[in-house]
Each structure stands twice: as structure tokens, then as C-alpha cells.
Write a structure and sequence with these properties.
The protein has five helices and twelve strands. By secondary structure, it is an alpha/beta fold. Strand 4 and strand 5 form a beta hairpin. The longest helix is centred in the first third of the chain and has 16 residues. The radius of gyration is 15 Å and the shape is globular.
Length: about 180
């Protein structure tokens, strides 16, 4: 099994070395799958992330959700280690926040009830475990709202057979890559 730190560094280096075209082609393949998911289609609320550092581009999903009248929330990280989602009505309604992540204004809190959550990550395994950047924001959030349906978006190379997890780590319900859906 891989250590979290070593795996995180390896995956971040691989992801950040992708060309703009590789990110675009892979993102389109992943996004097309998401937009056709029954769980996405039927959801009234979408919790997503604004992509950074060559993550799968979620902006087409966010724009699709907004165009279909879905409620869309993006995360804001707080000083106490928690994360909350605030509503946006347009993808331009963000500004740079903590860690260089684009965040919405803290106007209207989006409750997690019956939401479809698109989860970022650095590495995943076939058991649907995830490794993030290491601060634990998503693990803490998902511990509080365990009934949210979670869909992680990744490149194929980010999914390995298995890695060691800790008790506080939260797995996702589904992982979508360019070539596979792990359910």
C-alpha cells in the first residue's frame, strides 16, 4: 500500500504536468458522463468545486446546473477547519479565497439536504476512498452530512487499487474518470 503523503505528491505532480489539451479532452469526457447521470439530472441542489491546479473542469457542470434552474453551492473554508457551501447564480460570482481557491460570496448558505455533491481529490482507490490536499475539509463536511450523494471526478491515472486509510477518512459513492465509472 502507498502512503498518503507520497501518493499525494506523486499524483499532484502528474496532474500538474498535464497539458491544457489533455485537461480539456479528459474533462469533457468526465463532464459528459456526469450530465447524463440520473442522480445529477434529478437533483435540485448541486454542491461543486471551482477547479484549480488541473483538476477536472467542473465549470460546464456548474453552468449546466444553473441553466436548468438547479441551486448551486460552492465551498468556502473557514478558520476553524470547517467548510460551508454558499449559493451562486453565475460562475463569475467568485473571488480568490483561501489557498488560491475561487470562492463565492458568503451571502446565502446552501443546506446539504438531498444534494448531489461533486467532490475533488488528488488520489482515489477502487474502494472509493479519496485523498485530498490533506486539510480534511471534505472529510469533516461529509461526517456532518452523511446522506449526501458524492461523486468524485478524476483522471484515470488518479485511481489506484488501494491505499491505507484512517478512521476519519470518508469515501465517496462514485468515481468518474475518462474511461470508467466506479460505483
Amino acid at each position: 500500500m502507498f502512503s498518503k503523503t507520497g501518493l499525494r505528491d506523486q499524483m499532484l505532480n502528474s496532474r500538474e504536468s498535464l497539458s491544457e489539451e489533455e485537461v480539456s479532452v479528459s474533462s469533457k469526457a468526465v463532464v459528459d458522463k456526469v450530465l447524463n447521470l440520473p442522480d445529477y439530472i434529478s437533483a435540485d441542489t448541486i454542491l461543486a468545486y471551482y477547479p484549480i491546479r488541473n483538476e477536472i473542469n467542473t465549470l460546464p457542470i456548474i453552468e449546466d446546473a444553473l441553466n436548468k434552474g438547479k441551486r448551486v453551492g460552492l465551498p468556502v473554508t473557514l478558520d476553524n477547519g470547517e467548510m460551508l457551501f454558499y449559493e451562486i447564480w453565475d460562475v463569475s460570482e467568485v473571488s480568490e479565497g483561501r489557498y488560491g481557491v475561487m470562492e463565492p460570496a458568503k451571502d446565502i448558505l446552501v443546506e446539504a439536504d438531498d444534494a448531489f455533491m461533486i467532490v475533488p481529490g488528488v488520489a482515489f482507490d477502487m474502494r472509493k476512498n479519496r485523498i485530498g490536499f490533506g486539510a480534511g475539509y471534505y472529510d469533516k463536511y461529509l461526517a456532518r452530512f452523511s446522506d449526501i450523494y458524492t461523486c468524485a471526478l478524476a483522471y484515470d491515472f488518479q485511481v489506484i487499487d488501494a491505499f491505507a486509510t484512517e478512521e476519519h477518512d470518508k469515501s465517496v459513492d462514485m468515481i468518474i474518470t475518462e474511461r470508467q465509472m466506479i460505483i
